[in-house]
Amino acid sequence: MMQPPSEPSSVTGGETADALAAAALTKDSLFSQVRRLLAAFWASRERNELLMLAAGLVVVVAATAYMQIRLNAWNQPFYDALTHRDIPAFIRQLRIFAELAAILLVLNVSQVWLNQTSRVVLRQGLVHDLLNEWLEPLRAFRLSNAGAIGQNPDQRLHADAQHLTELLTDLGIGLLQSSLLLLSFIGVLWVRSEHMFLPLPGHRLYVPGYMVWCALFYAGTASVLSWLVGRPLVALDAERYAREANLRFALVRANEEIEGITIHGGEADEQRHLNRVFDTVIEVSRRIVAATTRLTWITSGYGWFTLVAPILVAAPTFLTGDMSFGELMLVVGAFNQVQTSLRWFVDNFSSIADWRATLLRVASFRAAVVTMDNLGESASHIDLKESDSPTVRLDELQVAAPAGAIQLSEPHIDLAPDERVLIAGERGAARTLLFRAMVGLWPWGTGRITRPDRASMRFLPGRAYVPPGSLRTALCYPCTTDEFDDATTARALAAVGLERLQPLLDRTERWDQRLNDDEKQCLAIARVILQRPKWVVLDGTFEQLDAGSRQRIKALFTRELAGTGLINIGTEEHAEAFFTRRVQLKTDPQGPTFSPSGRAAALMR
Fold this sequence. Notes:
Shape: elongated
Oligomer: single chain
CATH topology of the largest domain: ABC transporter transmembrane region fold
Number of helices: 21
């Protein structure tokens, strides 16, 4: 047997879940996060649909940019007709405007449809990818014990994924549209600046592309100011999403535990707790309000001044008579289109900060999920072997726990399939970790576990699981309902005292809420009767049952389930003469330790 060191040691070699995930993201850049998500989309079954939508958007946005050029060119003859009071020309230009407007309307409606559809497909692809990665064997379980990054995965999979795809679609289409408009109108503005000048004392300074350089300087100044003032919004948005997730979790927990809260008269305490959590949301929201207000001084000021900026720049040329009113309006229209394109960053900085914060949450979650495969990779692992033999053998087993090594009173234990074994220990994490080690969920430690294959064993945790769907689905789980006929299911329910539920087998309800803890444990035993495994391993199940149910279940293991081996990790409280063998569970504080959580994961919220 391995000799424990004189001082507590860690079997992880420093590889906590937090450290692995944090290390992955420390080297991560925005480009890397986007690249990985794009790679996930490329590998998804929604790829072809996304590519078709993207191609459609490019065509529609390009066509819209072309029609915007036509509409801007329409300004000169229209305003010249007004200036010269030319009624036939005026009416002709109105007809042209109606044609242009009709085409732009069709293009705008098409763009909205493509935008909304892209949101749906992007979300579909992202959530499918996240669910597939999260629910890979062992990952979700390990992540739930990995500190802050494993908290509230529902928020990342639901709200964050939805918000990210909506922002990505809106910002992506806006950027594409602005880029095409810029490329289209910058040439128009350059040509129309040919005879424009900058008035200086005593002479005129002609600058090639005069209006273009003015637009670039104007928009560049506003963009730099927006970045400097609005940069704190990225961190603030990320913090707000984390606190909103905590509030949502607290509200759901209170709703699920409302019976216990009411019985103990704890409404006032619960209200104070929820108010404290809500206050953290309000506090960061107020900081976001202040940061947004500061940013608005830049964006709104820029927007208002844009109304007169092109006229002020072109006014010297117009006032000297070198430009007609129609030409002035054409130049103003082109300048505004260029400005609209260049100010995309300014106008969308809040949304960009929001997108960056949401991307960080989704990317960090996905990165953390993937790192769960490497959690404690260099650590000592329990040698878990499946064999054709019906026996269970435990050799020199030490389960590494946060507070020390969990051991058994006997170094070598051979269990026959007809034995009923009690592994006795006090209530606490040690018992659960041993149970998880036997399942294969907790591999860290030393020694060997040899058992039959997973399909021939049933592991019943202290909190019985009732899957969603009909009661028949829950009874047969994880098998399909067509594997057992009505007579067989009726006998199984009657054997555990749940015969009253037979008429309700095909009813779909929240059975996890409708059934009490005792009934849920009895339902789990009824599954065992149906599936007849070689072994059943219990994590203190007998302690969850009332006296009548406990005696009924014990009787089953001496009759219908007499050939099924039983390992109960529990207390001596209800041992009586039922168990044929007893083994003591103990903890060695000087033994190897392991904890999947740490401080680093908090950095990834």
